[in-house]
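S.,

Sequence below, as promised.
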Amino acid sequence: MLFDDTYRTLEKPAEGLFRDRGSKFLAFAFPLNAESELKNILAQLKSVHPKANHHCWAFRLGIDRSVFRVNDDGEPSGTAGRPILNTLLSKDLTNIVVVVVRYFGGTLLGVPGLINAYKSATEDALNHGKIIQKTVNDIYRIQFDYLQMNDIMKIIKEDDLTIISQDFDEDCNMRVSIRKTMVNQVLGRFEQISGVKARFDKMV
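The prediction came back faster than expected:
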């Protein structure tokens, strides 16, 4: 199987709402690049909704979509985080977290009611958001001599690379983003220019 270098994610934060028998379920969807970002998102929502009964969430991370976690935050096991995650799975989204904030309305919804509520709130948030397709890219540091600038820029333009940062002191240093499936082809072109060094920085 060919490596699939595209994935679907959320462009920017989005919100949704679902009500059932007096309970309010507010869904907040955010793009997520690392699990460490989750703490701030939860802290921010808890400060805005301190009186909410539950802050349940699920996230998915990674291009191969293999990293995920769910949290029911006091709801019956499997009734909150899992339905949120299943919605992300069914829409094939990754690098995303959805937090559903629940205000209890006094009437118990039962297990099927809760599953439906958390799923519906999540779907509403995702329907309000913009889903985009992104490519998996590798960031490379390119080091070259000032005189080679034209040759380097030609490759960047022809292969449609994104320059992330550049620094032109004695040596020229540039960080460029290369689509995963094009890495070998682009590095091959850089290597044909004498003295150019390209080294892997990270994957995004």
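Residues 6-133 form a domain with the Ribosomal Protein S5; domain 2 fold (CATH 3.30.230.30).

Coffee later?
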